[in-house]
């Protein structure tokens, strides 16, 4: 069974996030009373700072660190915005700042995001459709948002009205997209569900209850209905969100890297017997088939 993340894995999150970042910086400029050019200057400065020390910045949910805050433009903008607002000396309460960073500015500008697929995405999804191999997409995004992008790929298989092949492709994937997986919801109640990574001075939390329910639904089962985790390969672009849980369960995990991938994640997975680091989408299917042969 091949389970794919979507945003950042099938798509190029950096390219898609350009309009989001532009709009977010404009909101910051209006808040601090600076010209946009000055805000951009500090944005570039602080982005270099956090990328130099990705282990120091975490995405926090309910008081728990659930992922690096540097790995995509949607997470990265929040610590950068905090630094800019502090630099500007704006008097603002933590409650108001949180509202701006995670709701007002975020929600408004997220809608500006574009669509940009990683090279090889069409070929991968089409190959899985043609072979009818067990596969699924599991994402934090809403199912409708992912299906809208798959519809764009389907259009590319035919004319503008979408050919029969395109419709079949879309309908096949439509039943295999699982949204709102809430991979970012973690628990820290079981010490055995933690990983220690070099450089990182906090544990990686593997207990993701909502994500686990989806994986349990999709995994092949033995005669007693127990998941056969060794027959599952998961591929994603953010290790803590996509891969920590399946790796702890006994599945294989492939990290599809980009320029923002923390080096400590790469080092950890290169040393793990069921971990793999991928540079492009074309490597996903061979990884999956290799794992299937070995299982």
In short:
The chain contains twelve helices and ten strands.
Provide structural commentary:
With 295 residues, the protein is an alpha/beta fold. It folds into two domains: 189 residues, 3-Layer(aba) Sandwich (Rossmann fold), CATH 3.40.50; 93 residues. It has a six-stranded parallel sheet with strand order 5-4-1-8-9-10, with helices on both faces. Helix 11 links the parallel strand 9 and strand 10. Helix 2 packs antiparallel against helix 5 and helix 7 packs antiparallel against helix 8. The longest helix has 17 residues. It starts with a strand and ends with a helix. The mean pLDDT is 94.
> Biggest sheet: strands, sense, closure?
6 strands, parallel
* Model regions low in confidence, pLDDT < 50 over at least 5 residues: none
**CATH H level of the largest domain: which superfamily?**
HAD superfamily/HAD-like
CATH topology of the largest domain: Rossmann fold
Indicate the CATH class of the largest domain.
Answer: Alpha Beta
Number of helices: 12
Radius of gyration: 20 Å
Mean pLDDT value: 94
Domain tally = 2
Q: How helical, in percent, are the residues? A: 40-55%
Structural class: alpha/beta
């Amino acid at each position: 069974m091949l389970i794919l993340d979507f945003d950042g894995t099938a798509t190029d999150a950096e390219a898609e996030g350009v309009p989001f970042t532009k709009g977010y910086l404009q909101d910051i400029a209006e808040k601090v009373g600076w010209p946009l050019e000055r805000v951009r200057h500090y944005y570039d400065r602080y982005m270099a700072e956090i990328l130099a020390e990705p282990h120091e910045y975490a995405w926090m949910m309910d008081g728990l660190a659930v992922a690096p805050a540097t790995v995509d433009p949607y997470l990265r903008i929040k610590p950068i915005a905090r630094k800019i607002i502090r630099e500007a000396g704006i008097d603002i309460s933590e409650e108001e700042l949180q509202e701006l960073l995670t709701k007002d500015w975020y929600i408004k500008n997220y809608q500006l995001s574009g669509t940009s697929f990683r090279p090889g995405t069409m070929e991968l999804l089409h190959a899985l459709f043609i072979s009818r191999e067990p596969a699924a997409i599991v994402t934090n995004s809403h199912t409708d948002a992912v299906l809208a992008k798959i519809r764009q790929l389907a259009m590319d298989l035919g004319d503008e009205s979408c050919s029969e092949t395109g419709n079949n492709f879309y309908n096949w994937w439509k039943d295999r997209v699982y949204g709102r997986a809430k991979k970012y919801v973690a628990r820290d109640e079981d010490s055995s569900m933690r990983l220690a990574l070099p450089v990182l001075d906090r544990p990686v939390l593997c207990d993701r209850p909502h994500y686990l329910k989806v994986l349990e639904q999709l995994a092949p089962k033995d005669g007693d209905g127990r998941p056969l985790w060794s027959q599952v390969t998961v591929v994603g672009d953010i290790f803590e969100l996509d891969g920590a849980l399946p790796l702890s369960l006994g599945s294989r995990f492939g990290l599809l890297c980009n320029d923002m991938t923390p080096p400590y994640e790469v080092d950890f997975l290169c040393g793990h017997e069921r971990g793999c680091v991928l540079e492009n989408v074309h490597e996903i299917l061979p990884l999956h088939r290799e794992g299937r042969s070995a299982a």
